[in-house]
Specification:
6-stranded parallel β-sheet, 3-stranded antiparallel β-sheet, single chain, EC 1.1.1.37, oxidoreductase, Lactate_DH/Glyco_Ohase_4_C, binds 1,4-dihydronicotinamide adenine dinucleotide, Lactate/malate_DH_C, alpha/beta, tricarboxylic acid cycle, 11 strands
Length: 336
């Protein structure tokens, strides 16, 4: 039995994500799905509960200790709560509102379900993950192996865009491209040289540059197309569910599951230290391919062989990442 909780479940991501969790045959038999939001969760839960799959769905609102009830017994908590971007905004622009939302939800998790795996979708991920970690530290329940920034959408976009270039969309779900660094603009570093399906021979550096830029700023395409109505929701729900399934399957004992995710590098000291050497800076967090297991992070993999171009991308990502991380940490620190 797995109790999965979605915080922000009535939103643009929360609803389709909850639908995917309710309907996935891999996990639904064993899943109790608990939905929390400041609005509309009774309706979303009632709607989903009519779907003929075994997962039991319950909705909660803030009154009467709703957050606590939603989180009691949780093993996996997914957080897509918070405001999304509008055209012209960066993810960092969301910090003002989302930092406080994520902090308050993290306090709820730390006090009610401190052993749960926490999957943070709310942006800016580079800062909200440190916020969750600092709250957990303050409550004496911090385990770096159990807190993840969800960067899967970058990986999903990379696979899709590469399959488009190879002229075969049916390859999209088979292609793997590690995407490392962080989750915003230049901190998103696709390692195209390590694509499971190599780019066409003769693919010019200029085209690599264009593809890299499209992966880094793929979110902007959606924000622009939605024209003020928000950012990626459906592709994000797909990506979030994919990552959650991996965490759940690994928790149940399946071996060898690896996925890029933004983690505290103390989660695997040896792997984390090796990675810090590779990136040339003592960062506390980084998104890297991580092997998952019953207790969360088992191993942080090294970047391996990367091109000179990718090495430059990482150099460019590091200063912004460091700033984003520090912003999240210091949001909680003063009240220590
Ligand atoms: P949305 O506005 O449609 O939904 C957000 C939901 O959060 C709303 O239902 C709202 O009522 C709820 N909420 C607000 N404060 C809350 C609180 N204190 N407790 C519980 N729920 C609360 O936004 P959308 O499009 O679903 O995006 C959510 C977040 O996900 C945004 O921060 C967005 O930037 C981020 N995002 C992250 C991506 C990633 O790759 N990690 C990709 C796309 C979006």
């Amino acid at each position: 039995m797995v109790k999965a909780v979605v915080l922000g479940a009535a939103g643009g991501i929360g609803q389709p994500l909850s639908l995917l969790l309710k309907t996935n045959p891999l996990v639904t038999e064993h899943t109790q799905l608990s939905l929390y939001d400041i609005v509309n969760t009774p309706g979303v839960a009632a709607d989903l509960s009519h779907i003929s799959t075994p997962a039991k769905v319950t909705g909660y609102l803030p009154p009467d200790d709703g957050l606590k009830k939603a989180l009691t017994g949780a093993e996996v908590v997914i957080i897509p709560a918070g405001v999304p971007r509008k055209p012209g905004m960066t993810r960092d622009d969301l910090f003002k509102i989302n930092a406080g939302i994520v902090r308050d939800l993290a306090v709820g998790i730390a006090t009610t379900a401190p052993k749960a795996f926490v999957l943070v979708i709310s942006n800016p991920v580079n800062s909200t993950v440190p916020i969750v970690a600092e709250v957990f530290k303050k409550h004496g329940v911090f385990d770096p192996k159990r807190i993840f920034g969800v960067t899967t959408l970058d990986v999903v976009r990379a696979s899709t865009f590469v399959s488009e270039i190879l002229g075969d969309l049916s390859l999209a779900s088979k292609i793997t491209v590690p995407v490392v660094g962080g989750h915003s603009g230049v901190t998103i570093v696709p390692l195209l040289s390590q694509s499971s399906h190599p780019l066409p021979s003769g693919f010019a550096q200029e085209e690599v540059d264009k593809l890299t830029n499209r992966i880094q700023f793929g979110g902007d395409e959606v924000v622009k197309a939605k024209d003020g109505a928000g950012s990626a929701t459906l592709s994000m729900a797909y990506a979030g569910a994919e990552f959650a399934y991996k965490v759940i399957r690994a928790a149940k004992g399946e071996k060898g599951i690896v996925a890029p995710t933004f983690v505290n590098l103390a989660a695997d000291k040896e792997g984390g230290d090796a990675l810090k050497k590779e990136i040339g800076r003592d960062l506390e967090y980084f998104s890297a391919p991580v092997e998952l297991g019953p207790e969360g992070v088992v191993k942080i993999n090294s970047l391996g062989k990367i091109s000179e171009y990718e090495s430059t991308l990482i150099k460019n990502a590091v200063p912004e990442l460091a700033t984003n991380i520090e912003k999240g940490v210091s949001f909680i620190e003063p009240s220590k």
